[in-house]
Specification:
By secondary structure, this protein is α/β, with parallel strands linked by helices. It contains four helices and twelve strands. The longest helix has 14 residues, at 175-188.
């Protein structure tokens, strides 16, 4: 359709069955909190319609370990945006959360894959939302979470993330010996190794992401 053909399209609206509208807004960074009023005024308030707004920002305090700034939850214009928006779909913080805890309207599913070790314990994945009703809409939200390395197709498959102990290469005398030492250590940790001649697709979830430090001084350059 005309919407998908516009590759450079930034923001827009999709209508589903004449009673559900999905709006999209691009990333505004630190200026995000200043556009809530404009968005509220641009999205028609109609109790017979269900409005979904997709934005890229995080709520302050929802990911304490993140260095990414977030919008304060008490921001007046954010609360006012709820007058026009029934479901605010966010993406920025990699941790799954909803807000507020009672009758939430803000939903952040979290990253499907880990991006660093700190996220290993994060709940993350996707939301399956069922919207019913006409004059009064009811949201039935089911959280589909990613378990580290889960490949069950009925859930949200994602790549396994491994963190192993430091590998000492100080006793090796060449780059080739160091590589061999590393591969030997990985095998001991049960890491599945593939033939270097085999082509590995980026979408192959059987290939884990591995974090390990190399330690020791080597006598070659």
């Amino acid at each position: 359709d005309s919407f998908s053909e516009k590759k450079a399209h930034r923001g827009g609206k999709i209508e589903i069955k004449k009673d559900t509208f999905i709006y999209g807004v691009s990333y505004f960074g630190s200026f995000t909190q200043h556009i809530f009023t404009a968005l509220k005024n641009a999205i028609p308030k109609d109790d017979s319609k269900f409005n979904i707004l997709m934005m890229h920002f995080g709520l302050e305090g929802q990911d304490p370990g993140s260095n990414k700034p977030g919008v304060k939850r008490e921001t007046r214009t954010l609360k006012e945006l709820h007058d026009s928006v029934n479901y605010l779909a966010l993406g920025h913080y990699h941790k799954q959360y909803v807000f507020p805890s009672k009758d939430p309207w803000v939903f952040n599913p979290g990253s499907l894959e880990l991006n660093d070790l700190r996220e290993l314990s994060y709940p993350r994945g996707a939301f399956l939302a069922t919207i019913s009703g006409k004059e009064y809409y009811r949201k039935d939200i089911k959280s589909l979470t990613c378990d580290n390395g889960a490949t069950d197709p009925t859930l949200v498959p994602n790549r396994r993330f491994l963190s192993i102990s430091p590998i000492d290469i100080s006793m090796t005398n060449s780059f080739e010996e160091s590589i061999k030492s590393v591969l030997t250590s990985l095998k001991k940790w049960g890491v599945p190794l593939q033939n270097s001649k085999d082509k590995v697709e980026k979408s192959d979830l059987s290939c884990p992401i591995i974090f390990f430090p190399l330690v020791g001084e080597v006598g070659y350059s």
